[in-house]
Amino acid sequence: MSAPRVYIYDTTLRDGAQTSGVDFGPADKDAIARELDALGVDYIEGGWPGANPTDDSFFDNLPPVSRARITAFGMTRRAGRSADNDPGLNALLSTDARVVCMVGKTWDYHVDVALGIERTENIAMIKDSIAYAVTRVDEVLFDAEHFFDGYKANPEFAMSCLKAAIDGGARWVVLCDTNGGTMPFEIDDIVTQVCKTIPGDKIGIHCHDDTGNAVANSLSAVRAGARMVQGTINGLGERCGNANLVSVIPSLMLKMGYDTNVGEAGLKRLRHVSNGLDERLNRAPDRHRPYVGESAFAHKGGLHVSAVEKDPRCYEHVPPASVGNHRQILISDQAGRSNILARFREIGIDIDDKDPRIMTLLDKVKEKEKQGFSYDGAGASFELLARRILGDVPDYFHCSSFRVIDERRWNAKDERVTLSEATVKLALHGDAANAKDGAQRMAVAEGNGPVNALDAAMRKVLLPLYPTLKDLRLVDYKVRILTPGDATAAVTRVMIESTDASGRTWATVGVSANVIDASYNALRDSIVFKLLQDGVAAA
């Protein structure tokens, strides 16, 4: 017997656009729609035709999709108008989208106060609009706005609105927890009651996350009989967001045994889709996002690592690869021998587990973390530390000295100018103290900040010898104050994330009471790691 089917309706392009700080352009909407189609969602809600130029552009040039159905969103007819004579409704039905979703009131309070119309007219608006729409498009959904508040206040009226939609020909009636205030046990009770009147294969659920329960509420609704879930990628949405489909989809498939159009192959794309959306929005992905976050399968405590190495089920609720993720063994002052060995296997270091250098490295890690270093998110710096203890890192260069000058002035146009200048002296081989004449190179460079200037000066020296550094790019730079009580004399930790043309990314760390010194340490590790990964020999 096949597993029950649940349909996935994505509202990222409409609800997601209501997120504070999010602004989709036409190219964004087109690209996101293509990714959602490749993922395997059943419906992609493209926006509200006529609401703004971006949505109009999207519906004027619908992206080609092969698996999903693009949906246009709008309202039922207005009070006092016939459906065929309502401009808004006809605009909704005039796009090339063959599916439409209409929103209407189902809470008597809203009908009485917000609309100020008779309740019978509200019911007629729902039925008339849907009956007219089914003659113009292939499929119609009804979004029952504030349904759960309405049902708790007046279940008879709320149900009469749903029945009107079904009688009008709606394929789905979607129960909306519009203000996000309903609890999972209430969702379960109410959806169970609704399914006694309307078949579950016609019922959808649309939850907001104002109590942090949108995912739980969506899963509760499915368990109670609903067969469609609406939500957004990464939980984007107004206020606290919508149900996060990145959590909903794998929970339905891997935990509850339901079938979706996403399938096993699509599930393995989940992390890619989640991170890709963050990248498009210029946001750092949430490392702790369930299923797909960088730390979702990261193990730090020594006992945990020992257990997960023997049986992953001890601390991994699903195989990381099933959702496109991977296991990480973190190195920290909580690490034990098992962490070190597991991390060695991960980065390809073959070593006898009784090698005394393992304990040397473990002690060194704990000593460094006491100073403020953190290797949790700086795997490249840890790998260099380990390989240096094992003697596996070539002596690419040694910094004899560097100096950074910041200048702030006003030019002849009375414009403020801020400029950084860095001078570096690098020994290209051996110990700088014993370096022969000509072994040291000096370079000077300017930049829009001290780290940029330092980076530019080092590249002037290193690029002629190590051309592989040409595609090295710094993509993120973070500073954390470790001793805030010391005010401006505080110890700082700098984390740098780097990438290159191959698409690899790696993170490095530096710590010092001087932020420029800390930055240099992280920058140096980034350059050395790049050279090591590219298999470059020391000049």
TrEMBL record:
Protein's UniProt keywords contain Transferase: yes
One Pfam family of this chain: LeuA_dimer
The protein's enzyme class: transferase
Reaction catalyzed: pyruvate + acetyl-CoA + H2O = (3R)-citramalate + CoA + H(+)
Transmembrane regions listed in the UniProt entry: none
Keyword list, A-Z: Amino-acid biosynthesis, Branched-chain amino acid biosynthesis, Isoleucine biosynthesis, Transferase
GO MF: (R)-citramalate synthase activity; 2-isopropylmalate synthase activity
InterPro entries: 2-isopropylmalate_synth_dimer (IPR013709), AIPM/Hcit_synth_CS (IPR002034), Aldolase_TIM (IPR013785), Citramal_synthase (IPR005675), LeuA/HCS_post-cat (IPR054691), LeuA_allosteric_dom_sf (IPR036230), PYR_CT (IPR000891)
Database matches in Gene3D superfamilies: 1.10.238.260, 3.30.160.270, Aldolase class I
UniProt-listed GO biological process terms: isoleucine biosynthetic process; L-leucine biosynthetic process
UniProt pathway: Amino-acid biosynthesis; L-isoleucine biosynthesis; 2-oxobutanoate from pyruvate: step 1/3
CDD domains to which the protein is assigned, alphabetical: DRE_TIM_LeuA3
EC number(s) given by UniProt: 2.3.3.21
Stretches assigned to the Pyruvate carboxyltransferase domain: 6-268
Presence of the UniProt keyword Transport in the record: no
Family of the protein in this entry: Belongs to the alpha-IPM synthase/homocitrate synthase family.
PANTHER family on file: (R)-CITRAMALATE SYNTHASE (PTHR43538:SF1), ALPHA-IPM SYNTHASE/HOMOCITRATE SYNTHASE (PTHR43538)
Protein name: Citramalate synthase
Organism: Magnetovibrio blakemorei
